[in-house]
Amino acid sequence: MKKEYEENGYLVLKHFVSAGELQKLRAVASQFHQSWKQENAQFYADKAVNSAYLTAPKHLTNIERDVLFKFLGSNKLVNVATSIMGSCPAFMNTQLFFDPVNKEQKNYWHRDTQYHMSVEEQQQALLGPNVVHFRIPMVDEPGVELIPGTHKRWDTENELDVRLQLNGRENHEDLSTGVTVKLEAGDLLVFSANMIHRGIYGMNRMSLDILFCDPVPELVKFVDNNCLPDSDIMDKLENSDVFMVLSRE
Protein backbone atom coordinates (compact mmCIF):
# COMPACT_ATOMS: atom_id res chain seq x y z
CA MET A 1 0.00 0.00 0.00
CA LYS A 2 2.73 2.47 0.96
CA LYS A 3 4.79 1.52 -2.11
CA GLU A 4 1.83 2.21 -4.43
CA TYR A 5 1.18 5.56 -2.77
CA GLU A 6 4.83 6.62 -2.87
CA GLU A 7 5.09 5.74 -6.55
CA ASN A 8 1.82 7.25 -7.82
CA GLY A 9 0.78 9.75 -5.14
CA TYR A 10 -2.59 8.08 -4.66
CA LEU A 11 -4.36 4.77 -4.03
CA VAL A 12 -7.93 3.49 -3.72
CA LEU A 13 -9.24 1.08 -1.09
CA LYS A 14 -12.53 -0.28 -2.38
CA HIS A 15 -15.52 -0.62 -0.03
CA PHE A 16 -13.50 0.74 2.88
CA VAL A 17 -16.55 1.93 4.84
CA SER A 18 -19.31 -0.52 5.78
CA ALA A 19 -22.90 0.15 4.73
CA GLY A 20 -23.98 0.92 8.31
CA GLU A 21 -21.05 3.24 8.93
CA LEU A 22 -21.65 4.99 5.61
CA GLN A 23 -25.31 5.55 6.40
CA LYS A 24 -24.37 7.36 9.62
CA LEU A 25 -21.70 9.47 7.92
CA ARG A 26 -24.05 10.37 5.07
CA ALA A 27 -26.76 11.54 7.48
CA VAL A 28 -24.30 13.81 9.30
CA ALA A 29 -22.81 15.14 6.06
CA SER A 30 -26.28 15.91 4.71
CA GLN A 31 -27.25 17.75 7.87
CA PHE A 32 -24.07 19.82 7.74
CA HIS A 33 -24.60 20.57 4.05
CA GLN A 34 -28.16 21.82 4.52
CA SER A 35 -27.15 24.11 7.38
CA TRP A 36 -24.02 25.34 5.61
CA LYS A 37 -25.98 26.14 2.42
CA GLN A 38 -28.42 28.34 4.33
CA GLU A 39 -25.61 30.39 5.85
CA ASN A 40 -23.60 30.59 2.61
CA ALA A 41 -26.45 30.86 0.10
CA GLN A 42 -24.81 33.42 -2.19
CA PHE A 43 -21.42 31.73 -2.27
CA TYR A 44 -23.10 28.36 -2.86
CA ALA A 45 -25.15 29.76 -5.74
CA ASP A 46 -22.20 31.59 -7.30
CA LYS A 47 -19.33 29.13 -7.42
CA ALA A 48 -18.86 26.88 -4.38
CA VAL A 49 -17.75 23.28 -4.87
CA ASN A 50 -16.79 22.49 -1.28
CA SER A 51 -17.21 23.50 2.34
CA ALA A 52 -15.05 22.85 5.40
CA TYR A 53 -14.83 22.53 9.19
CA LEU A 54 -17.48 19.82 9.56
CA THR A 55 -16.33 18.90 13.07
CA ALA A 56 -16.84 22.42 14.43
CA PRO A 57 -19.99 22.87 16.58
CA LYS A 58 -21.49 25.52 14.29
CA HIS A 59 -23.63 23.32 12.04
CA LEU A 60 -23.83 20.02 13.94
CA THR A 61 -25.02 18.77 17.31
CA ASN A 62 -22.63 17.08 19.72
CA ILE A 63 -24.18 13.72 18.83
CA GLU A 64 -23.53 14.34 15.13
CA ARG A 65 -19.98 15.48 15.84
CA ASP A 66 -19.47 12.27 17.85
CA VAL A 67 -20.23 10.25 14.72
CA LEU A 68 -17.54 12.08 12.76
CA PHE A 69 -14.94 11.96 15.51
CA LYS A 70 -15.45 8.22 16.09
CA PHE A 71 -14.73 7.62 12.42
CA LEU A 72 -11.78 10.03 12.31
CA GLY A 73 -10.33 8.39 15.41
CA SER A 74 -11.04 4.81 14.32
CA ASN A 75 -8.14 2.37 14.19
CA LYS A 76 -9.17 1.45 10.67
CA LEU A 77 -8.65 4.97 9.28
CA VAL A 78 -5.71 5.97 11.46
CA ASN A 79 -3.83 2.77 10.63
CA VAL A 80 -4.11 3.50 6.90
CA ALA A 81 -2.94 7.07 7.42
CA THR A 82 -0.03 5.98 9.59
CA SER A 83 1.07 3.24 7.19
CA ILE A 84 1.18 5.71 4.30
CA MET A 85 2.63 8.73 6.07
CA GLY A 86 5.26 6.85 8.06
CA SER A 87 4.40 8.13 11.52
CA CYS A 88 1.25 9.05 13.37
CA PRO A 89 -0.20 11.96 11.38
CA ALA A 90 -1.99 15.00 12.75
CA PHE A 91 -5.64 15.70 12.00
CA MET A 92 -5.86 18.94 10.03
CA ASN A 93 -9.40 19.52 8.73
CA THR A 94 -12.49 18.06 7.09
CA GLN A 95 -14.16 19.16 3.87
CA LEU A 96 -17.31 18.26 1.95
CA PHE A 97 -17.20 18.26 -1.85
CA PHE A 98 -20.35 18.70 -3.94
CA ASP A 99 -21.45 19.76 -7.44
CA PRO A 100 -21.60 23.47 -8.33
CA VAL A 101 -25.06 24.98 -8.77
CA ASN A 102 -24.06 26.31 -12.19
CA LYS A 103 -23.98 23.27 -14.49
CA GLU A 104 -21.71 25.18 -16.90
CA GLN A 105 -19.03 25.70 -14.25
CA LYS A 106 -15.76 24.03 -15.26
CA ASN A 107 -13.60 21.89 -13.03
CA TYR A 108 -9.99 22.97 -12.80
CA TRP A 109 -6.50 21.55 -12.41
CA HIS A 110 -4.61 22.63 -9.32
CA ARG A 111 -2.17 21.78 -6.58
CA ASP A 112 -3.52 22.69 -3.15
CA THR A 113 -0.35 24.65 -2.42
CA GLN A 114 -0.91 27.15 -5.25
CA TYR A 115 -3.50 29.07 -3.24
CA HIS A 116 -1.06 30.16 -0.55
CA MET A 117 2.41 29.68 -2.04
CA SER A 118 4.52 31.22 -4.78
CA VAL A 119 5.63 29.02 -7.68
CA GLU A 120 9.05 28.61 -6.08
CA GLU A 121 7.46 27.64 -2.77
CA GLN A 122 5.20 25.12 -4.53
CA GLN A 123 8.29 23.46 -5.99
CA GLN A 124 9.95 23.36 -2.58
CA ALA A 125 6.79 21.85 -1.03
CA LEU A 126 7.31 18.70 -3.11
CA LEU A 127 10.13 17.84 -0.70
CA GLY A 128 7.73 17.90 2.29
CA PRO A 129 6.28 18.12 4.85
CA ASN A 130 3.13 16.45 3.52
CA VAL A 131 -0.62 16.92 3.58
CA VAL A 132 -2.74 13.97 2.45
CA HIS A 133 -6.42 13.73 1.48
CA PHE A 134 -8.52 10.78 2.64
CA ARG A 135 -11.72 11.06 0.59
CA ILE A 136 -14.85 8.97 1.06
CA PRO A 137 -17.77 9.41 -1.37
CA MET A 138 -21.16 9.29 0.32
CA VAL A 139 -22.72 8.26 -3.01
CA ASP A 140 -21.36 6.81 -6.27
CA GLU A 141 -19.62 9.61 -8.19
CA PRO A 142 -17.46 10.30 -11.27
CA GLY A 143 -14.45 10.65 -8.97
CA VAL A 144 -11.24 12.62 -9.33
CA GLU A 145 -8.71 13.12 -12.13
CA LEU A 146 -5.10 12.89 -11.00
CA ILE A 147 -1.70 13.16 -12.64
CA PRO A 148 0.32 10.27 -11.17
CA GLY A 149 3.76 11.10 -9.82
CA THR A 150 3.22 14.85 -9.56
CA HIS A 151 3.35 14.61 -5.77
CA LYS A 152 7.11 14.34 -6.30
CA ARG A 153 7.79 15.91 -9.69
CA TRP A 154 7.24 19.43 -10.98
CA ASP A 155 4.82 20.29 -13.81
CA THR A 156 5.74 19.88 -17.44
CA GLU A 157 5.57 23.12 -19.41
CA ASN A 158 2.12 22.17 -20.71
CA GLU A 159 0.80 21.21 -17.26
CA LEU A 160 2.07 24.46 -15.73
CA ASP A 161 0.53 26.61 -18.48
CA VAL A 162 -2.86 24.94 -17.99
CA ARG A 163 -2.79 24.83 -14.18
CA LEU A 164 -1.77 28.47 -13.78
CA GLN A 165 -3.55 29.70 -16.94
CA LEU A 166 -0.40 30.97 -18.62
CA ASN A 167 0.18 31.73 -22.31
CA GLY A 168 -3.51 31.78 -23.14
CA ARG A 169 -4.29 28.39 -21.63
CA GLU A 170 -7.28 27.63 -19.34
CA ASN A 171 -7.16 25.54 -16.17
CA HIS A 172 -10.12 23.40 -17.27
CA GLU A 173 -8.43 22.11 -20.43
CA ASP A 174 -7.85 18.37 -20.63
CA LEU A 175 -4.35 17.07 -19.94
CA SER A 176 -3.22 13.83 -21.56
CA THR A 177 -1.29 12.88 -18.42
CA GLY A 178 -4.46 12.80 -16.30
CA VAL A 179 -5.92 9.54 -14.96
CA THR A 180 -9.60 9.35 -13.98
CA VAL A 181 -10.32 7.51 -10.73
CA LYS A 182 -14.01 6.63 -10.48
CA LEU A 183 -15.38 6.12 -6.99
CA GLU A 184 -18.24 4.18 -5.43
CA ALA A 185 -19.95 5.02 -2.16
CA GLY A 186 -17.79 3.83 0.72
CA ASP A 187 -14.51 3.69 -1.20
CA LEU A 188 -11.46 5.46 0.22
CA LEU A 189 -9.31 7.55 -2.11
CA VAL A 190 -6.00 8.60 -0.62
CA PHE A 191 -3.98 11.24 -2.50
CA SER A 192 -1.31 13.83 -1.89
CA ALA A 193 -2.41 17.46 -1.63
CA ASN A 194 0.76 18.31 -3.57
CA MET A 195 -0.22 16.46 -6.72
CA ILE A 196 -1.96 18.02 -9.72
CA HIS A 197 -5.62 17.03 -9.64
CA ARG A 198 -9.18 18.12 -10.30
CA GLY A 199 -12.59 16.92 -9.13
CA ILE A 200 -15.10 15.61 -11.66
CA TYR A 201 -18.56 17.08 -11.26
CA GLY A 202 -21.78 15.15 -11.69
CA MET A 203 -24.06 12.49 -10.13
CA ASN A 204 -24.86 14.82 -7.20
CA ARG A 205 -21.53 13.99 -5.64
CA MET A 206 -21.04 14.36 -1.91
CA SER A 207 -17.60 13.37 -0.68
CA LEU A 208 -16.27 13.62 2.84
CA ASP A 209 -12.63 14.67 2.73
CA ILE A 210 -10.32 14.26 5.71
CA LEU A 211 -6.95 15.99 5.75
CA PHE A 212 -4.05 14.57 7.73
CA CYS A 213 -0.61 16.17 7.79
CA ASP A 214 2.89 15.39 8.98
CA PRO A 215 3.15 16.36 12.68
CA VAL A 216 5.19 19.52 12.19
CA PRO A 217 4.48 23.00 13.63
CA GLU A 218 4.29 24.77 10.25
CA LEU A 219 1.28 22.62 9.30
CA VAL A 220 -0.36 21.92 12.65
CA LYS A 221 -0.63 25.66 13.29
CA PHE A 222 -3.43 25.81 10.70
CA VAL A 223 -5.72 23.53 12.74
CA ASP A 224 -8.82 25.27 14.10
CA ASN A 225 -9.23 24.36 17.77
CA ASN A 226 -13.02 24.50 17.37
CA CYS A 227 -12.71 21.46 15.11
CA LEU A 228 -11.01 19.29 17.73
CA PRO A 229 -12.82 16.90 20.10
CA ASP A 230 -13.17 17.74 23.78
CA SER A 231 -11.88 15.41 26.49
CA ASP A 232 -15.21 13.58 26.80
CA ILE A 233 -15.21 12.69 23.11
CA MET A 234 -11.49 11.84 23.16
CA ASP A 235 -12.12 9.20 25.83
CA LYS A 236 -14.55 7.41 23.46
CA LEU A 237 -12.16 7.15 20.52
CA GLU A 238 -10.30 4.01 19.49
CA ASN A 239 -7.30 6.12 18.53
CA SER A 240 -7.05 9.71 19.70
CA ASP A 241 -3.37 10.12 18.77
CA VAL A 242 -4.15 12.07 15.58
CA PHE A 243 -5.69 14.82 17.71
CA MET A 244 -2.80 14.98 20.18
CA VAL A 245 0.34 14.76 18.04
CA LEU A 246 1.49 18.27 18.90
CA SER A 247 0.22 20.91 21.25
CA ARG A 248 -1.85 23.43 19.32
CA GLU A 249 -1.66 26.17 21.91
TrEMBL record:
Pfam families: PhyH. Gene3D superfamilies: q2cbj1_9rhob like domain (2.60.120.620). One of its GO terms (molecular function) is dioxygenase activity. InterPro entries: Phytyl_CoA_dOase-like. SUPFAM superfamilies: Clavaminate synthase-like (SSF51197). Keywords: Dioxygenase, Oxidoreductase. This is Phytanoyl-CoA dioxygenase family protein.
